[in-house]
Specification:
Distance between the termini: 46 Å
Number of strands: 0
Shape: elongated
Strand content: under 5%
Radius of gyration: 17 Å
Structural class: mainly alpha
Helix content: 40-55%
Length: 105
């Protein structure tokens, strides 16, 4: 499999990018012509972050680092997301994986 690699394309990544791009477009229009668009665009971009995080936690994202070739397909769901990914900030913020790491105190 020389020359092949995991690009990390996931449903969470594409959805977050699409919604975030729309938010940036709306904010840009707000800067140029329509002042309320700035705040609306920033709100849409914040929603993109929450959407991406939610999809990641639902298993439609990917853990940090490369995945095996079997899971390269974008439609491949990560069934290990419920227990949390080691070294994953999104999972740590959601409180996942604490039992596996051993809770301190």
């Amino acid at each position: 499999m020389s020359g092949q690699y995991d690009e990390g394309h996931t449903v969470a990544g594409w959805a977050g990018t699409a919604v975030g791009s729309v938010g940036a477009l709306v904010a840009g229009v707000g800067v140029c012509v329509w002042s309320p668009g700035i705040w609306l665009g920033l709100g849409v971009m914040a929603a993109a972050v929450l959407l991406t995080w939610g999809l990641h936690l639902a298993g439609w994202g990917k853990p940090p680092g490369p995945r095996s070739a079997v899971h390269w397909d974008m439609r491949s769901r990560d069934h290990g997301a419920r227990s949390g990914h080691p070294g994953c900030t999104a999972c740590r913020l959601a409180g996942r994986g604490l039992a596996a790491r051993g809770r301190a105190g």
